[in-house]
Amino acid sequence: MAVTKMEKVTLISDKRNQERILQAVQGIQNVEIRDLYQNRTNNQWVEKYFPDTTIIDKEAKLSALGNRLKDIQEAIQFIQHHGDSRQKKLHLKRQELSLQDLEANYSEENFMNKLEEVLDLKEKWEQLTEKRDRLEEEEEWLLHWQQLDIAPSMYASKTTIFEMGTVSAANFESFKEELSKLDDVYMEEIDYTPKQVYLSYVALKKSVAAIEEIAGKYGFNKETYPYEQNPKEKLQETKQQLSIVHEQQKKITTALGQCSGYIQEFEWVEEVTLAVAEREKVKERFIHATYLIVLQGWVDAEEKQNLMHVLNETVSEKDIYISFETPNSEEIQQEVPTKLKNHPLIEPFELLTEMYSLPKYEEVDPTPWMTPFYLVFFGMMVADVGYGLLMLIGTILAQKLFVLPRGMKRFVKFFEILSVPSIIWGLIYSSFFGQALPKELFGIRLPFPILSTTDDVNTILILSVIFGLIQILVGLFVAAKENIRRKDYLSAVSDGFAWQGILIGIVIALIGAMLIKNTAFVYLGAGLSIIATLCILIVPIIQSPSKVKGAAKGAYNLYGLTGYIGDLVSYTRLMALGISGGSIGAAFNMLVAFMPPAARFSVGILLIIALHALNMFLTLLSAYVHGARLQYVEFFGKFYTGGGRAFDPLKTAEKYVNINHKKKNNK
């Protein structure tokens, strides 16, 4: 398969059908809505025929929907944080259903009552929490002064002063000694911590100046006592108030316990609200006339019949006009999005292409060309039957037991497919969790290892380079094929076939000189390479108006041969990573084998599981990253440019459910 062929769809209908049409289009998730107000040549008809259309102000509605989402999320979080443990597990189970079922199967009135109930409990909880924090702070402060058995206001008089405060523990003794030298001061230590001393003193007002000088010298910090009761009485009152607050919060927790199932309903409505918000965002892109709407979008050519069927189910055929157009050259260059469509076994590998860059609309999709090589390379770098079986079983169970989000499902399918070459190469290398496979099973002699990671290192190295050479030749073939499709035959020769000729010629010459010792092969290979080299030098001269510049360009292009040598060297990582992963696994097995029997079958079991889990993670990560690098640098660079704009259909967020318009499930 390749890049999907797109068509421009135009929908015209009565304005009263707007919401139903948008819901139907959103439900199939296969139409990208065009912005008819963008300054494009193919939008000039809008101003001509609809000069006085209604301007949609989406901000007010989106703001209201945003506030609704905020309230829902706050309610869910409140139940999660303060509800009982059973409630926290009652999330909406992911399922597949149609958008119509999603939006129909809930009661707005019932939802609003429940939301207001939870938000009211939340508001009360926050008020109580604020009060509790204040009381706890008050309690902590009073604990330091509870030994002060009088209220400071009792000492207010015309001739005396009362002060209370703190001084650092390091300065306390010196401060106390200085105050003791004054006859008309009485000081009392109230509380002590390793850092501070809490104290109070009574003195005659005539000594204030001397006392304040000493206080400033030793860093005495005055504190104000704001209560009428003495600290012990106030502390008791504060504790009683705290107890009341705790009881009130317990009642709220109990009330939350009666909100069983609220999280599921709130998540359901959140999904609905997110879907409505997406519809609101696109309303400003199409025409809102007095009595009708005009909407345009891009749709997969293979899905247009499905679109027509869904719309005709939603709106009477006589109430809607639908037309399809093939994009013109200007639209292809500026606007048409890229959507990939491949065989189910190849489709998961589209994520690698998307990570690099999507192809332009009329460019080749590299995914089908890349997939066979990535399978071989990944398997060669993991190369362990045990790791492959774990991948296979884990991914199959994940898909059978759970309804996964679409992105995760594709990722899981990706590793399910990759588990097969991992097992195959594990058999070739005879590796099962780092252990060699048995030589004989049930009296049958097994052929493993086909390649030994200890005795056949050079063979594996050569095989890695051969795989690399094959991929490079395929990349050059695709480059030539694409140039032929564009009728650029000279570039097909210079950018594709000529380089293939050089590389194949060198290989033939090397085989003749080193393996079969045949000079005819050497001359054949050398001749092929020379002819191909001349093509690379001559074609730019033919293409360029300036023959000198063309010759210089040809010479520069020929210098690219060094890059091909570097590319081939890069493929040696297939050998290095394949051998290293198995060797590390074997080392872990040996480490546990050296442990005493008692430890080996207790701690050793846990240790070997943890070590192999780590090795498997690092091996899969290395294979994933380095396999992708070989595609991006050594392969894509031969024929692929990228830079396409991703197809962005009107769809739902699918935060909690998967939308499938073919599903007719109930809540």
From TrEMBL:
GO terms for molecular function: ATPase binding; hydrolase activity; proton-transporting ATPase activity, rotational mechanism. GO terms for biological process: vacuolar acidification. Signal peptide: none annotated. It is a multi-pass membrane protein. This is V-type sodium ATPase, I subunit. The keyword Transmembrane helix applies. It is found in: Membrane. Keywords: Hydrolase, Ion transport, Membrane, Transmembrane, Transmembrane helix, Transport. It comes from Enterococcus italicus (strain DSM 15952 / CCUG 50447 / LMG 22039 / TP 1.5). It holds the Pfam family V_ATPase_I.
